[in-house]
Structure formats: structure tokens, C-alpha cells
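Below sits my pick:
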Amino acid sequence: MRLVEKIVVTRPVVIKVKLTPRYREILLARLGHALELAERELKRVEAELGQLQGKSQAEALEHLRREKVAARDRLRQQYESVKNLPLGTELVQGRTESLVEVGVGDEASRLGPVEIVIEEGKIVAVREQGL
């Protein structure tokens, strides 16, 4: 068996965005647009439901209607949540992985997750979380 001194491994990276007034506006606009689309889709399904005669089709559309109502309600809740979040809150925007070289004698904390914090389009912090 051969001993290896160093190895490159992956570790999780969480990308966060700091809530600023500008970013809140962007988020609220996106959520508002998604909410409008959800409302339109719900109205379309409800209109189709009102025109149906067959029971099996009506049941399927009613199930779809309930899903659309739940989606709309989740969007409303997200919208209100974003409106009420304090400025400076860090919101998870995505997840990825990074490569890190570790070797014998290194701190095991280097294997832990990393956070990248973005504010107004610029990286303002890179934090190693450790194990």
C-alpha cells in the first residue's frame, strides 16, 4: 500500500446574498411576477373546471386547482416574508462545491462547508465553517 501525502477533495459551498434595499426590490419584483402568473393560471383552471361536465375530468382539474392554490399561497407567504426580513439578513441563493487540497497534518476543518456572501453583486465574505 502506498501512502499519499496530499489529495484534492470536494467540499460544499453555500452561496448567500445579503438583503439590501435594492436586493429586496429585486426579490419582491420576481415574487410579484410569479404571484401574478400563479393567479392567472389558477383562474384559467377554475374557468375550465366550471365548464366541465365529466366527473373524472372535474376531479383531475380540482386536484390541479388545489395544487395551484397551494403554490399561490406559498408565493404569497414568501413575498410577505421577504417584505418583513430585516436588512442584512443573509439569504441562501444557491449551493455548489469547491475543490480543496488537504494533506497529512492539515486541520480537518478544511473539509467542512464554505459560505460565500454576496452584497450588491460583490463577494464580501468567504467563511470556512469547519467540522
In short: The longest helix spans residues 21-51. The chain has a mean pLDDT of 91.
